[in-house]
Amino acid sequence: MIQFNWNKIFLTSLLLLIFTASLYPGNDADALLKKVQKKYETWKDAKISFTQEVKFSVTKTEQLFIGTLIMKKGSRYRIELEDRNIITDGISVWSINKTNKQVVIDKYHDDPKALTPEKVLTSIPKKYNASILNKEEDADAKLTVLKLLPKEERSSFKSIKMWIDEDKMLIKKIQILDSSNNTTTYIITDLEVDAGIPDSYFVYKPESGYEIIDLR
C-alpha cells in the first residue's frame, strides 16, 4: 500500500477549509460546527484553489505550494499541484509524478485516522474542542478567529486556527501546528460549490510517455 503521509495532513487541512467555508461567526463555537454539518448536507461537490505555506521547525526552511482540490461525495478527490496530481474514485488511487512522468496505482484504503468529507461531520465534534479565540480586523474585513484543540494526546495536530470573514462568512486563512511543531498555512483564493463535476474527473486516463506502476 502506498503511504502519502504528507498528503494525509494536507488533505485533512483542506477538508477543514471546505467545511468551515460557510461558518456563521457567533459566540458559541459548537454552534458554528453545527452550521458546518447542516451546510455540508446540501453540497454535492466542491472545487477549491489555494496557496499552502509550510514552515519547518527543525530546519527553519519554508515551502510554498499553489494548487487545487476537487472533491465529490463518495470518497472522490483530485488534488492538483505543480509537480504532481493525486486522484481517487474511492476504489483506486493514482499518484501522478509530472517531473518523472510516472504513475503509481494502488487500491484506495480507508484510513480510520484520516478525515474525509463523510467522516468530518462526526469526527470534528468528537475529536476537537472548539473555541472563539478573538476578533481581528484587516484592511477590508472583520475577522473571527476560531481555535480547535484535539481531545486526544496522539493527534496529528497540536492546534488549528481559522480566520473567518464575518460579513462574507468565508474563511480567509487557516493555520495548523502539527505534532512536530511545523506550521502550515492555507489561504483560499477561490471556492466553487456544486459545479456538477462528473465522476470521470476522478479516474486517471493514461497519458503517452508515462510509466505505469500498478500495485493493485
How would you characterize the overall build of this protein?
The chain is 18% helix and 44% strand. It is of the alpha+beta class. It has a single domain (5-214), classed as outer membrane lipoprotein receptor (LolB), chain A. Strands 7-8-9-10-11-1-2-3-4-5-6-12 form a twelve-stranded mixed beta sheet. Strand 8 and strand 9 (157-165) form a beta hairpin. Helix 2 runs antiparallel to helix 3 (117-127). Mean pLDDT is 79; it is low at 1-6.
How are the secondary structure elements laid out?
Layout: H1 5-19, H2 29-40, E1 45-55, E2 62-72, E3 76-80, E4 84-88, E5 92-97, E6 102-107, H3 117-127, E7 128-137, E8 142-150, E9 157-165, E10 170-178, E11 183-193, E12 211-214
| CATH T-level topology | outer membrane lipoprotein receptor (LolB), chain A
Poorly predicted spans: 1-6
Q: How large, in whole angstroms, is the Cα Rg?
A: 18 Å
What's the story with the biggest beta sheet? Answer: 12 strands, mixed
The CATH top-level class label: Mainly Beta
Biggest sheet: strand arrangement? 7-8-9-10-11-1-2-3-4-5-6-12
Total tally of structural domains: 1
CATH architectural designation: Clam
Total DSSP E strands: 12
Mean pLDDT: 79
Terminal residue distance: 8 Å
What is the succession of H and E elements? HHEEEEEEHEEEEEE
Shape descriptor: globular
Outline of this structure?
The chain is an alpha+beta fold. It has helices at residues 5-19, 29-40, 117-127; strands at residues 45-55, 62-72, 76-80, 84-88, 92-97, 102-107, 128-137, 142-150, 157-165, 170-178, 183-193, 211-214.
